[in-house]
Queue: 2 jobs
Job 1
Amino acid sequence: MKNTMLIVATFAAFLAAGCSKSASVTGESQEKLSLVKPAAVTVHRGGMSKADIQIKRTDLAGDVAIQFKNLPKGVEVVESDNRIVGEKGTYTLRASDTADLVENYASEVTATSGPGNLSVSQVINVSVKAVQ
Amino acid sequence: MRLMIPAALAACLFALAACQSATVRGTEGRSLTATTPTSMTLHRGGSAPLEVGIDREKFTGPVTVSIFQLPKGVESDQSSISAETTSATFILKAASAADLVSNQAVGVTVEDPNGRKATQFVNLTVTD
């Protein structure tokens, strides 16, 4: 029984690790910015859902601006200006009552920082489901 | 075009009037400011975001944002948030049998790692 639990826990940890994706960019002075985001976010019509974004930086100080682009019609980010001062941030997606029902809609999340506006983007799949 | 400028100014003034902030100041010019809307309305069975602005002066790092004094039947998705950002959002949900209240003061506290706290209150109304 213990072994089974261990295997299940290991498998779950593996799955969890596979549920986020990262990308990074390196600037001229070897400063580095990495963006880790969830592979997918699901929000129900009329509801809200949170997405955790992680940042890793090397030789890069200051706020990191996060921008979501190409969200499904009827979906918006609640926070108008939410910059990351540390290494992680949470963003709230809200779907209107009439938001388009979509499955894995390829939206984009971009992190920008530094004097040279070092910028890294990633696709985030957004699904909008009907209220159950 | 002539109408757009006054309209934009009016919108800005309205936006400014709709927010309030509390600041706690520490040594070496450090300060922490929490900004919240003055009021918000929830419908029974509905939900709405409560966004708290966080302004750090001369320090960085996480702060703890907590919410308290919610009316009966109103719940927040989190009671506290460790924020490494310039804002934090609570999702408030009113149950279908939540108490109907008008301008009940809901508290929001932002606390830095040294224990300095800035507390602000939002007038929450729950309607049918």
Job 2
Amino acid sequence: MDRLRAQLDRWAGNAFLWPAVVVVLFLSIFPLVLSLYLSLVRLQFVPGGFQLTFIGLSNYRKLFLGSEQVHFLGLAGRTTMLGWLVFGLGVGLLAWTLIGYLRAGNVSAGGLIGRGLAVLIGALILLMLVRTLAPGGRPGTITVTLIYVFVDLTIQYLLGLGLALLCTQRLPGRRFFRVVFLLPMMITPVGVAYMFRMLADTTKGPFKPIWGALGLYNTSWVNDPWGARAAVMIGDIWQWTPFMFIVLLAALEGQSVEQVEAATVDGANSWEIFRHITLPEILPVSTTLILIRMIEAFKIVDLPNVLTNGGPGTATESLTLQAYINWRTLDLGGATAVAYVLLFLVTFLAMVLVNVVRRRVVEA
Amino acid sequence: MNAFLRLFRRRSLFRPSPLQMAVSYAILIGWAFVVLFPIYWLVITSVKLPIHVNDGPVYLPFVDFQPSLHAWEYILVGDLKNDTFRPYANTVIVGSISATLALVLGTMAAYGLMRFRYRPRLGAILSFVGCLVLAFIAGSSGVPWSLAIIAALALFVLIVQTIGRRFQKSLGNSDIAFWLISQRILPPVAVVIPIYVLYQQFKLLDTHIGLIIAYVGANLPIVVWLMRDYFQTIPIELEECAAIDGASRYRTFLSIVLPLAVPGLVATFLFVLVFAWNEYLLALFLSSARAQTMPLTVAAQNATRGPQWWYMSVLIILMITPVIIMAILLERYIARGLLVGAIKG
């Protein structure tokens, strides 16, 4: 009996981890392999069925160099001095981190290759942003998606953190706010998208008098590229701030009280308490939150699809919406190729986040 | 002067000064308005006649317009009755079971990744992938799938037992965690067709179990990552004490670690529940008549005559009600002070 118990205890590590790994393996391996294969073929309908023709990397070539280039990467404008300045600064910063790594000693071949690649990809993304956002340029779906993710995440995190801090104070009625603030997350994304379409309508929506007062009565603001993008981002921020809020709230509430008490007795003010006690404690969970939200935000599809249908033109089209539209027109190869570019891009960003930011935060 | 200063003084540790309180309330109420206004609009749209919606905005029921329950009738007792209740039951079943399962499995894995050291060998992983590719090639060139998979598994065991032992390079816990979360990166559009094919083979299409497995798999990485961070804040001394007292690893996990992680568990559960409750694209593909869930019914209200706002609003309200009740019931567990005094003595 005792030997059995000892044996069971030795197996604990495996017993804890394996069930989860098996479920994820079951659902991930086959789809990953098959969709990679799909991104290398062209689907054609032939009498009596369909036919998959192997065409190698043509789907990817179409995105980066061929007919989809403007749609996908965007159209370069006349880059201004300011643009080049931003680009120069960014590249300088990237190069500086690389030099810092080299000077710290402790250089390994893998680490060097990884960092070199990261700097190169970072510079390329920056170049694309600077050139397509210049006057006369047109941002492609990659740029639009990156803008969505960056703006949404920043605002959501700051809002969520601020609200969570307010809700941990001993204010009467805070439980009401806590539940109310969770509401947007509970509505199905498709529903949120239709709801915002209702609200954004300039003739039937509730803000009609405001549009009228501003003299925008018959000019739908969704016809302006940046107006439409703002509408999509407002919807996303509205829906997903609660996620940041609830996770940060749980982290703040899990904090031990003794430290805060001790610091207060020693005369620390609330900013000092936040900076030196609270912030270090919620930083690990913050990196996780940002990682999860970043991965989800890159897959934004319902809002632009329902709210603006990707328009005007392709101004609000995200990468996933582009994949979705390809896929609706039965261009399976094109759809999965877009999805795989997204996979590489997000994996790259996630690895940078985990290896550079999170490691530093968790070990500190 | 004294009265003025008192405005800024904290009354006790967690009681802010009156001025701070006023500012806090202003912000809280402001955001509550931002959150509630769209939902208010949803509620009044559900009692509007189509003409009230199409002729421009009206704001207050009984003042601006006469409310009507026509949409509620249509959804709950009229034509759409059967198309509402079955998906509703499906959503409840699939959502609650999959969220619970994901929470259980994910929490266990998160604890494992926190407190144990795993060293999956690179050689074993590579040979696993290699055997899988072989099975895939064999299967697509005419060999029966079951045979191909069994042969590949046998080959895998053979390789690991013989050559695999020579390659000692291995990965660590953080690599496992990253692999788990990376499973969420690929957008559903790219994987629905492969999963459809997979489910066809296993006869899981249009079943509750199929949807539950899909959602558990999709939610597990999130649970693992969030719970890992919550576990990190629990002092390891408590577990060491339990181990010295002779508790097994399972016992420590169940009676010491889990109770202390309740705030995190609740927050995570609410999130995965909401995700499974609202998921659209996978449900669209993997379910048709029997296992269909509510988001499909909502999206279906965008008919050929344009979106039927009033029906959509009713369905959305029906959908969020149980989740709101759940949130109200569970919110109290996200509370401070569980660790107070835990390490003393």
